[in-house]
Amino acid sequence: MSAFVNKVRIVEVGARDGLQNEKTVSTADKVALINALSAAGLKDIEAGAFVSPKWVPQMADSADVISALDLPDVNLSALTPNLKGAHAAHAVGIKEFAIFTAASESFCQKNINCSIDESIERFSEVMAFAKANNIRVRGYVSCVLGCPYEGEIDPQAVLSVSQKLLDLGCYEVSLGDTIGVGTAKKVTQLIELLLTHIDKAKLAVHFHDTYGQALTNIYAALSLGIATVDAAVAGLGGCPYAKGASGNVATEDVVYLLQGLGIEHGIDLQRLSDAGWEITKVLGKQPVSKVSVALHTK
């Protein structure tokens, strides 16, 4: 029996998870994108990452981008993998941190150079700082449905790491199909297992569209009562550590799906699509979103 919610919260990750895997764009273009996303009705926007510019040069100007924004009604979040990043994010007024680990040991080692348990341990300083400063923390788990190095991932491993992030103090865990190999059946099996231990209000989904399954996977998650979906305008991004992984599911396509299901989302699809066309023009490409292309060619 499907248990669709009445309203879905979309966490827009295009300006961070999307752009960090595209060619570098100017600070002004990032600010324009985030303002356009806000104008389209998005209330949760990942605005930057406070990480080493040596490893992620696309995010080197995150402090400048966030300082240039004046969006009191928008929850701006930023990736803060360590205490240095947390301090830098706090200094520009960020009220929500994001931390990330993986359900795959190999991916964790290649991505953040430590084991899963070590990654959780490293976050304890960030969590303490966040708590002291009344900042919410969201946890990401990569490779929940497959890993480029290990192949299939045991759902129990996903449960274990999700539980650890929640125990650490994360208010929500976003389940990432980093290489986009998941299918609806696997999504259903994974989420059903997690829901026997974790409240559905604490789970979000984050699907990449490598094999064209992201919308079907989101539908499977929605039918189990999941109410938070990550998406990137125009389908921006990919994963530098996952060869061949295409971008995040396009926000425009998710909004169209929600509209068809009669689920409230609060987003102006035309304005969202326009924002996607503007940033992809800067990148010298077209939106990956089928909905956005269809709207544009009407």
TrEMBL record:
- Quote one Gene Ontology molecular function term: lyase activity
Could you confirm whether the keyword Transmembrane helix appears in this record? no
Span of domain Pyruvate carboxyltransferase: 8-273
Q: Which domain of life is it from?
A: Bacteria
What sections of the sequence does the record tag as coiled-coil?
A: none
Give the UniProt keywords, A-Z: Lyase, Metal-binding
Q: Name one Pfam family in it.
A: HMGL-like
Homology family = Belongs to the HMG-CoA lyase family.
Q: What is this protein called?
A: Hydroxymethylglutaryl-CoA lyase
Question: Species name for this entry?
Answer: Pseudoalteromonas aliena SW19
